[in-house]
Amino acid sequence: MKCYEIFNFIENWAPKGIAWEKDNVGLQVGSAENVLTNILLCLDLTEKVVEEAVKKRCSLIISHHPLLFRPLKKIDTQIDKTSRIIAKLLHYKITVYSAHTNLDFTKEGVSFKLAEKLKLKNLRFLHHLESNQIKLSVFVPFSHIDTVAEAIHQAGGGIIGEYSHCSFRTIGTGTFKGSAKSNPALGNKMNLEYTDEIKLEVLINSFDSSKIISAVLNAHPYEEVAYDLYPLSNKNVNYGIGVIGQLENSMSEKEFLNHVSKSLKNKNFRYTAGNKRRISSVAVCGGSGSDLLETAASKKADAFITADIKYHTFDEALDKILLIDAGHYETEIFSLDEVQKRLKKFLVNSNNKVYKYTGSTNPVNFFNI
Ligand SMILES: [Zn+2]
Description:
The chain has 369 residues and is α/β, with parallel strands linked by helices. It folds into three domains: 3-104 and 334-356, 3-Layer(aba) Sandwich (Udp-n-acetylmuramoylalanyl-d-glutamate--2,6- Diaminopimelate Ligase, Chain: A, domain 1); 110-128 and 240-326, 3-Layer(aba) Sandwich (Udp-n-acetylmuramoylalanyl-d-glutamate--2,6- Diaminopimelate Ligase, Chain: A, domain 1); 131-234, Alpha-Beta Plaits (2-Layer Sandwich). Helices cover 28% and strands 29% of the residues. It has helices at 3-13, 47-55, 81-91, 101-104, 110-117, 145-154, 209-219, 253-263, 293-298, 311-317, 328-332, 335-346; strands at 26-29, 38-42, 58-63, 95-98, 121-129, 133-141, 168-177, 192-205, 227-231, 236-251, 270-272, 279-288, 303-307, 322-325, 354-356. A six-stranded mixed β-sheet has the order 5-10-12-13-14-11, with helices on both faces. Strands 1-4-3-2-15 form a five-stranded mixed β-sheet, with helices on both faces. It has a four-stranded antiparallel β-sheet with strand order 7-8-6-9. Helix 5 (110-117) crosses helix 12 (335-346) and helix 6 (145-154) runs antiparallel to helix 7. The model has no long low-confidence stretch (mean pLDDT 95). Bound molecules: zinc ion.
């Protein structure tokens, strides 16, 4: 097995096309053609992580945060730790791949795992991604309607929330007149033909469009396939930022703070008191999500848990919503469990192991006397 098969598997769940446009997801170092031995998962790629990968004979490291974010001007192994990491990776032929904001924005991704850890139920995205979808209309003769529809669905078209195979079909009459050089699948060239056709309409992700169009062209019997692509301004219900859910039983603020501390194994965190109401609806966003404070409040969340919160953001939340900064590392680390679970299932019939880094890559410490 080659590393790119793992990339494809992950991108089926967390497509690169949904990542933040300034992000740098995907292959970081090495080759997608590298033969897979074992996999090591981590949030951040440090020299110690590379050492553990070498010990465990891993040919692939999947790191949540991309190793390469800003352009490197030089590779200087004397003074720069990223350069040293790259040199080591190339020396040991280890490939590095990152699934970052695409893992944040997908179902069962970073915020879903955080919400599950807090035992929230009835999970929904807090904020859907802006439109990145297209309506595909393709005109198909009756004989090939199911073949063409299935080709679109197999290539990832027609998914709306928990429903797959979504389409709309309208019966109509198609007309065409082939030139002397044409080779029509129906009727004769140089003759005006009238034929029963179905207009098949399907919602597709814009980043899947070339894959889906080639699947349509392969499955469709016509020499020239008539299809239209319409841009949409719908929000994408399949992907989003942050999650909102409910506690099984409501808690006081103090009980909830205890619950957060125990669930995330986090003894120290910052918070600002809400409006003293009981906590039942909770919004979360793993990592830096303080921009979602207003959204969480407008969706009537009693508490919002995220990380990297500024002083003035705490001030904005005061007496409105219980705002908790539970730490960047602490709100994201549980996502590795889901990546590991999925990869283990995918690799069940192979000898490849999927490890999580045994140490901590959290650069933040708390000082206690
Ligand atoms: Zn992060």
